[in-house]
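Appendix C reproduces, verbatim, an entry submitted by the partner laboratory led by Prof. M.T., so that reviewers can inspect both the input and the predicted structure.
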Amino acid sequence: MKTILRVLPWLKRHPWLAAAQIFFAVAGTLVVLVPPRAVSVIIDEVIKEGRQELLMPWVLLAAAAYFGRDLFNAMRIRCNNTLEQHVIFDIRSDLYRRLQQLPLPWFDQKPTGDLMTTVAEDVTSMERVLVDGVEQGLVAVLQIVVVSGAMFWKDPMLAAVALIPVPFLAMGALNYTLTARGRYKHVRKATSEMNSMLHDNISGIRQIKAYGMEEAEHGRFNAFSDRLRVATLRVMRAWSLYRPSMNFIGATGTVLVLYFGGKRVLEGSLSLGDFTGGFLFLMPFLYEPIGALHQLNQILQAGRAAADRVFDILDAEPERNADSGEPLRLTAGHVEFDAVTFAYGGKQATLKGVSLEARPGQVVALVGPTGAGKSTIINLLTRFYEWDGGDIRIDGQSLRGVSKPSLRESIGYVTQESFLFNGTVRDNLVIARRDAGDEELWRVLEAANARGFVDRLPEGLDTQVGERGVRLSVGEKQRLSIARALLKNPPILLLDEATASVDTETERLIQEALERLMVNRTSFVIAHRLSTVRHADRIYVMNLGEVVEQGTHAELLAQGGLYAELCRTAFLDESEGKAEVG
């Protein structure tokens, strides 16, 4: 009941569809009483008393009732399907909106395939709780009440006999309900685990083939698939016992009515017509909705398990200042970290009292060993994560209460792994500014040293780049990312190892593009190669979450500390003509 109450708000968005569905369901239920009455009249008055003139009217009335029942049912199904799709759309839309509002740490704990299963499959199962559960449950209960009322009106004693199985059916349904939820949760969990594994393997198919892992991964997939098979069989076995046993208990009611009703007809206290039309003919209409409630119980338990997963997302705490907070009042682009501390997931500290500064228009480089905390600086400046202590300011304004959209509008971000969406070159560029025309797009492509290869693509700007930009090289994807940042034209720029994993010639093209991009902007550069570092206005050397050295390239070399050591080991002088690996 709690789940149904929680999903009712989506139903309220479409009141006329819901009302029409209920109207047709009620109308279809009421006409059920007409054919049994026709049978009763035909047996007692037409056949026994020989009143032939009543035969055709009652037969036509019964036919009209059957036609009306099926017409109302067709209209009910049409309304049901329309309402169902509206509700599924609304829930998915709200779910996706909430996913976009959630902070990055939340996603760190959730497999992508699990989230895909929730959005694609669990929403549909959850919807059944609402549309099928409310509508079918109401119709079934209404039909039981109407048919029972008609039976009690004919013969209270025999009607009571017909209802003897009902308490046993209710107890069976209650027992199934109390035990089914856990079984369905196992099915949903096994489905999500299999989908997550499948998503990872399709994304990593190149690595699987490169390392000859096909057989091993096939075995892993079969293991996940087998868990789903076992969990599903548990549900099916329970259902295979529950449904037939409920049907048998219901059938005992028919047997009892045959015995006691037959005796009353023989005794003359009940006419054959009333017995046949008022009881035998109505019995299926009494037990059919009871059976439907059993089937509905199966749907509801599956829906409740799915709804739990959907509400886990909808109930998650949204990202702070995702839609609120004061706007960023950016004037010059002066960035300050003041004794900032941070730990991922509350574990070991990643940053320990870090203080650094980037003055307007300066290029600040962050260098250090892997795990020193360089990327964390970027993650905190964009507020992908919230710092624990200290403060981060831009132009003197603390970012704590700043709305994240206004902050991120002022920042351009080029990462080591350039992410491209599965669309065209144009689609991936106009993310930065939707109203950009072709002339602007070609101009930023030229500045990013990307115009040459885009010109050679089969359809130019309208060429499909494939999932994650798979049809382009690493260097081409990186230059498109730089062009996208140029189109955004942000006052603050973040470069996270933007020249990594490319050959020397591609690095030169990217480096030229980056130099154009950094003009008149406050830039943070996570250095991978010495060419990026040596011309920085300020270099901060990090180790184990702390700033251990700072200065210019020449000053730090002269100190002979960690930076000088990194230059000898991690960075190689371009004058030697060697590739550099960080």
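The radius of gyration is 35 Å. Additional entries are available on request from the coordinating office.
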